[in-house]
Design a protein that fits this description.
2 helices; 2 strands; two-stranded parallel ribbon; single chain; 74 residues; mainly alpha
Length: 74
């Protein structure tokens, strides 16, 4: 998992173009999960749990996004 979208997408694109297997990447941004916010770790853990529980097709890169809290889903 990384915020370094530019570099890792470039590495992934080169590997895919060469027909090589790549590591499964999970990308995020400081905008979606601000490093300076003390609640970020908890939100990131919940988002990753939801992503991994959903059993996504991880043949390529995924962007992780914050989930809404159960109380705000109504």
């Amino acid at each position: 998992m990384t915020e370094n979208v530019t570099d890792f997408r470039r590495i992934e694109a080169r590997a895919l173009a060469a027909g090589e297997r790549t590591a499964q990447l999970i990308l995020t941004t400081d905008r979606r999960f601000p490093r300076g916010d003390p609640g970020t770790i908890g939100r990131l853990v919940l988002a990753l749990d939801e992503l991994l529980t959903a059993s996504p097709d991880t043949t390529t890169t995924l962007f992780v996004t914050p989930i809404t809290s159960p109380s705000s889903r109504t």
